[in-house]
Fold this protein.
Amino acid sequence: MPLVKTSKLITIERHISEEHALHPQATGEFSRLLRDLTLALRILARDVRRAGLNDVLGLTDETNVHGERVKRLDIHANDVIIRAMDHGGHLCVMASEESDALIQIPDEYSKGKYVLVFDPLDGSSNIDVNVSIGTIFSVYRRLDPTLTTGGNVEDCLQPGYKQVAAGYAMYGSSTQLVYSSGNGVDVFTFDPTIGEFLLTFEKIRIPRKGKIYSVNSGNAYKWHQGVRDYVAHLLRPSDDGLRPYSLRYVGTMVADVHRTLHYGGIFMYPADSMLPSGKLRLVYEVNPMAFIIEQAGGMASNGTQRILELEPESLHQRSPCFMGSPDDVREVESFINSSPE
Ligand code: AHG
Ligand code: MN
Ligand code: MN
């Protein structure tokens, strides 16, 4: 089992301050940033649970920068995170899937040295049918730490390997927070009776190879030949019993990657003839999830390059992604690289 369950009773705040002690130069600003973020996630955990009762389900009349109909819970989650994070003095700028432009820190609040980019509600298509959804976040240091003014778009367009921390909350049968600040991946489970995230798994390690692949097969007719050949390979029974793989696809990236992290295998959102860069957004979906997967010993690729080395050019740009067990990601890369197109 790749998980190391822990018997220690530790809240996320205690865990973060213990990690903070590992970095004596840290000022505590980062710990306070995460404290404020976990407050937002606690509020969202409550609101998602009550979504059906609080009448925050359903669509707004709006369409976002991606041309997608915006759900009311998307907007609500975006507002909760912004309001929880904009006044703590640890951020210089934010960016969100649900905000076309940068989110500046209001003039009346001091600016800090960190940057927060996030997908406030991942898996929106699953909100109204009670299927797991999540929140994805990623933290960078600002490019010029001597500045005390608001940040800019370059601060948000750093390559993924510069992430200081990343993680996601998954609002499923329980609410779990999966998080890494570069020291491995830890899982916290929310206990609503005491309002705390408690450490439940430490230093998750993804299996080297899995038996599950996760992709929207409805797009197969649009995939490049290498991806089609790879999936056909997974479905051909092998003498060693390692194939065929099973298909599991929730349609919420957080849920599909969370399962891949625990069980191994591969999660893919390939480019196709309609979406030449795939569907998922590099800055606040693919990069943070790639950071988590790599911190757990996995791999994350766009098919030819390591995701975390990609240089983002715009806030909402998309990237193909193949992430999960290292042997599985290497195998899909070999099919892509040996394909004629
Ligand atoms: P979001 O709800 O933030 O827009 O993200 C939805 C994404 C991601 O969660 C998931 O992996 C993917 O959309 C599913 O897309 P398809 O429905 O095209 O498979
Ligand atoms: Mn998303
Ligand atoms: Mn979203």
